[in-house]
Specification:
single chain; Rossmann fold
């Protein structure tokens, strides 16, 4: 009997340790990772201690100019599961539109203030999307692209009802992975090209890397987080964007700064290699996460425009 009591004691202690150090932290992390995001505008954020700091003035001034110089119309569509999704729309009366999909926890003008100016100057209408569970958009959970992919399809349907016949989808970080999940299901002939900036291969790997950076037991935590995620959303965090892009038919240009410490640039290389469509890969030296287009060279930005504009006013079915 003594041996039984000892065994039960050891098992009980192990269970307590597991609850305290694995299940408990995972349960707390689940709400933080997948809960609603305030998506605070740039003017309300302190970025002085981040890698954005050297570019803070540029980013703030670009966002301010966009709000001052353009009329931002608040538009909405409906998600597949009944939430109101919102975006700000700049109508320049053009026959081409760029739709921007921001990153995790960000807001449209945080990621795309500079981009909006560049594209508007090139004659594009601009759609600045708020992801579900971010800012003004509805939704209780952010799923790092897995449910958001359906929202991309909702916005494509919205743009199908607008006058412009040429649409480019531009994602940054989570926004990129969201587009990559959705791309194979986009049937609209209006969507001519994709710009895919610093996306990750899967939410699982991205959260796992974040655990490593924080010196947390990533493998144990991820097992629990993924089990919770599958139970809650009937989806798997291991869902891979490279696998999704094997079926993509829309021309795509990939950007990823080699100094990115948030998402390794090799993720974009892996996804690029898998992509089945016409494609191009730009891996600029020295540029950080989400900053390739806005802080890169004029020559690199011109490469982006040259790529996408090859497909403006073309029939994608004949490519």
């Amino acid at each position: 009997m003594t041996a039984v009591y000892i065994t039960l004691g050891v098992l009980g202690a192990a269970l307590i340790l597991y609850i305290v150090f694995v299940f408990g932290p995972a349960a707390l992390s689940f709400g933080k990772i997948f809960g609603q995001k305030s998506a605070e505008p740039l003017k309300g954020r302190d970025i002085s201690k981040t890698y954005f700091a050297p570019f803070e003035k540029m980013m703030r001034e670009a966002a301010d100019r966009v709000e001052a110089d353009y009329e931002l119309q608040r538009v909405k569509t409906k998600s597949f599961d009944g939430y109101d999704l919102y975006a700000d729309y700049i109508d320049l009366g053009s026959d081409k539109t760029v739709a921007f999909f921001h990153g995790y926890g960000a807001s449209p003008l945080v990621n795309f203030g500079c981009h909006t100016e560049y594209f508007a100057q090139r004659g594009y209408n601009v759609l600045l999307v708020f992801h579900r569970a971010h800012g003004v958009s509805g939704g209780e959970n952010c799923t790092l692209g897995i449910l958001e992919m359906h929202d991309v399809l909702s916005w494509v349907e919205f743009l199908d009802g607008m006058p412009a016949d040429n649409v480019v989808l531009y994602g940054i970080s989570m926004g990129t992975s969201t587009i990559e999940y959705a791309a194979q299901y986009i049937k609209s002939e209006k969507v001519k090209a994709l710009i895919l900036d610093c996306g990750y291969t899967s939410p699982y790997m991205q959260i796992y890397r974040d655990c490593q950076r924080r010196h947390l037991p990533g493998k144990l935590l991820m097992q629990v987080l993924n089990a919770m995620f599958r139970r809650r959303f009937r989806e798997d965090l291991c869902k891979n964007t490279a696998d999704a892009m094997k079926n993509n038919k829309i021309p795509a240009i990939f950007l990823h700064g080699k100094a990115d410490e948030t998402v390794p640039y090799n993720d974009s290389r892996i996804i690029f290699d898998a992509c089945a469509s016409e494609k191009k890969l730009l891996l600029p030296d020295g540029l950080h996460h989400t900053l390739s287009f806005s802080t890169g060279t004029d020559e690199m930005r011109e490469e982006v425009f040259e790529f996408i504009e090859k497909y403006i006013n073309t029939d994608r079915r004949k490519q």
